[in-house]
């Protein structure tokens, strides 16, 4: 062995066995010293090739190791294909090298000559390194040459004995700091202890301590009142007596806490920036007067090194005796514990001898594990008296004594709970004649005893953790789970077991155990369960419980809610409260908003708790608005919206507002980022004006706000704040109220945002070589990708990102296959979803891909989710370096078509902006109606838009974004509506009339106003009969009428000429005047009306239709006698959905359009939906809704009115159903020519 010098770093090269460093090999694998030197040129090869061999290097003192390289034995078939690396400061208490949260197995060699080097993911500081071969060439044996790379390391060490503390007194008697940097390293075998504590006389303090082997930092500032308390926990299993590094960086309220390279950022509670610690900080414990309650906290017992406080080297000052310790003396060498742990896996056992034929059975030990079940100890009594078995069973320790000499042949006792928490727990069990006692963690008060008949005579062997394979079946335990975990301080028959003697083969036996090492891993630290998911674990895996988080998946990564109200709209939902998650899988949680979908564009509304017209009567009043969402959540909504607004109003009486034209404002509002704004609603940033100042219509033209005129009468300044980068309003500060008679009232509406730019953000790839590029995707341990695509091509790459060997890729592999492939270092993995239908159908399809440390998954549309589990060991970090390419990449065939709403880890990529400057790619995408046109109901027409689509309801009797909202009105007695089929002063044969009167069948356009067919539909409800529901007159004697007869029956009357009397159809004999809603659909084609036919003498044309009447017939000329009789006093009730061919007369009356001039109304028409039930989704119950808002908080509720009436109507409908009354019933008759009555 020799030493190489390079850039001040020392490399240890094992070429032959020299004496620069001391080499050891395992006892079972050592050759005589002379043989070792004989084979020095070839490398190390033990005499036995099995899993108990190791090669150990002693560097003489601690080094910082950064890499290791291996070769096989020179010119042979001997090489190691896989190995582990252990390290230690003392040659005892070994620690395996960890990487990606696992005990790492290094890939070795594939031949005897090539050098395989591995750079460590993080450097290791140790004096001893041990290489443990795991596998080797099958045609040879273990053979190894190694080279270890690293640098010198030196640090001053202080040993704390659990009593002594080291105070560092500040130069200034009082220390008030804005910034603090504290760093140190520690190691301990104790699970409790204060590492440092600083405290001020005013009550401020900072404490870092161990609790249950986890690190807790506590901060308190007196200025922050009760909210000044901050407590943060990190780390786990820190009592392993290995070095752990801590760095605490504080700037005001922002703190970065780094433990062993894992940084956690948090912000302290309260409103302080400075920490007052007065005159000292103590390391190793706290002074007796320390707060909180110093006497309840243990001092630290263990070692610290490299203690640094704000640039001061505390360990160096202590070693030079510049600091005086308290409660004892310091030592500057680390005292090592005398414990020898033993590590068990699923196939391990440890057999040790006892003192046979004793009448006292005694076992004690400490154990730690994550598994709820496992065998701890088993031993047979002598003389076939039975046996004793000690298990951990569902987190409790259970003892089973099988007694063969008495009728009651089994004694069971148990104690403890939750003992599979990874902490050390002590078990003591003692049994003698007719007595046994089990004690857990030294708690004598809760020890479990039994006085059952029992005869004890100890056996020869005690088995810990499992059994050897060759044991007889009759000797086996009833418990089948082997123990996985660690044990130490094993006592058998009051004797401490010498585990080193066991290791050297001098005592007992073992299999697959590692002595002098505890390789327990906390798989929940760091916690891979996101968004507050609860992590639980067993020895080799962890599980996330996502209940109540709003997220799902193996790591609680995926939001269960849609991203926006826009997304809910395109799922066919209607106006209601919804949970949305604007950043998807990002850090922001979901929030509850009101989605108003009554218009073409969706409005998202977030409410606050400030009542409208809040009176203000105190000088410089600050009105705080508390929203039902955080500022970050609202910012996510406003940033993705196309437009946002917030109403604001100031009512004043002798209370000036902005003090225009040139004064300092008396009142202002605070928006996003806590910025003050001095403009008012209806104005804009940088303009100190109100709306009246912009429009030049203020009460006094000398001022730019009505209130600035300072009148004694009430005035008002109102308007919309629409600069969304400033919204929402978080505070309003009112100032001019100190004069007698001054009064003011403030109103602030909810934040309303319209549109979602992310949902429709799209790009069209027009050539197979076109692509967009973005910055490298950062998804090391958790990645999700979602997007929509549409294409007519059969294959193409959606996106790809590369690393050195790692990669991630999504592609369309064929017309029916989507592939998600990646490599994190364990080899390529590919998941394929196969669709039964073609995916290149030029329709929108959704892709969701996710990869985390637990699994990877892929879903296309609503097809079953394809999942691939991740290996329990191996690489877990996805390391990418290239740019992210969307479209063609690396010479592969690119994607032809459209990609929309591409989100990666909750962030939407702006495809449109990048496409504007990229050849071969166009922003936006057409053809939305091919996928979404189905949502335009009731004859609504889908209209393509640049960023989506809309439904044109103008030729329907319906309204709303999807043409599903009824348009109806309530008719009082004597009211009527007339719709003329031509405008006043125009020809009866004008184009508009011909188009609207034509059937929806494009082949039957009326060349004049004579109709061979018509379609009529409407809904009605009434309690009075007889009446005329609808009447269509003509310029001839032709007419059509729908009547409710005196009996309440429905009748249709046709008179098309050719017959003396009208043709009457009595549709049903039920009473339709029962107040319930009924729907009527009538289709005539020639003489056919459902099962009825007009007389052969009747004409087939409805000649020259003139007008359509609702409610009452007001027509000049001859009218059918029955109609005349039924016409008085007229219809009373509700009519809705009225449509005659393409004419919707009620809608024309209630919604101003280009045909509204055709409508004449007598009386006041009141809009109503006539009891129709809107499409809704059931709200989540309070029990299952994790963010249930108290309905009593009216500040967060939408305004009353339309929503309330819908709720009342739904309630009425439900009551009718409960009573067995059906609000509607229907029957259908023949084909497309039918009468439909409901």
TrEMBL record:
Gene3D superfamilies, per database record: 2.60.120.1000, 2.60.120.200, Galactose-binding domain-like, Laminin
Q: According to the lineage, what is the superkingdom?
A: Eukaryota
**Span of domain Laminin G:** 157-334, 339-518, 761-925, 987-1170
Please report the stretch or stretches of sequence annotated as the EGF-like domain.
Answer: 520-557, 926-964
Q: Which residues cross the membrane?
A: 1206-1229
Q: Where in the cell does this protein reside?
A: Cell junction, Paranodal septate junction; Membrane
- All disulfide bonds of the chain are 898-925
Q: Where is the F5/8 type C domain?
A: 44-151
What kind of membrane protein is this, topologically? Answer: Single-pass type I membrane protein
InterPro entries reported for this sequence:
ConA-like_dom_sf (IPR013320), EGF (IPR000742), FA58C (IPR000421), Fibrinogen-like_C (IPR036056), Fibrinogen_a/b/g_C_dom (IPR002181), Galactose-bd-like_sf (IPR008979), Laminin_G (IPR001791), Neurexin-related_CASP (IPR050372)
**Where is it mostly found?**
other
A single cellular component GO annotation: membrane
Q: Which Pfam families match?
A: EGF, F5_F8_type_C, Laminin_G_2
NCBIfam families, A to Z: GGGWT_bact (NF040941)
What is the designated name of this protein?
Contactin associated protein 2
Which organism is this entry from? Strigops habroptila (Kakapo)
